[in-house]
Amino acid sequence: MSKVIILSGSPSTQSRLYGLINYTTEQLQESGAEIILLNVADLPAEDLVKANFNSPDITAALALITAADAIIVASPVYKAAYSGLLKIFLDLVPQEGLRDKPVLPLFIGGTLAHLLVIDYALKPVLNALGGRHILGGVYAVDQWVERLPDGGYGLSQELVARLDRSVKELNELLK
Fold first, then answer.
1. Measured between alpha carbons, how far is 108 from 160 in angstroms, rounded to an integer?
2. Which of 5, 57, 126, 127 has its CA 20 to 30 A from that of 149?
3. Rg of the Cα trace of the chain?
4. pLDDT tens digits for range 64-94
5. What pTM was estimated for this model as a whole?
């Protein structure tokens, strides 16, 4: 069974980003993967900001990254880049911490104008962390994710198709 860590850089669990995360989680679980969601916002802020490598929470989070077969990096887009919360965590990942792990970016933003955030903002950092197999990723616009009355999310057909392609590609790499 493959272990996939979903690293969420969203400061809010109410973000539409969780529509993408939840859908991807379900698809990967159906294919037999073990999914662990790591919400960076749940880690102690002071330990993140001060890069406290002795923090049990930081140590445990980094151990999840080390033990993973694949990483999904998920973030909302703010000011044409991924969240500062995600960046502060990525700064703690060892330089070769993503070596030999497929990485799938999942991003959401308010406009298509930020479509290239994955290529221009995220991929150089992932590459610096040893990530050599970075999938194309999925960028979604807020309008493609509807909040449902039951607390779930409805995704546009286009978004579902793109997520399905990315999950299929990730599954192929995990075989």
1. 14
2. 5
3. 15
4. 999 999 999 999 999 889 999 999 999 999 9
5. 0.96
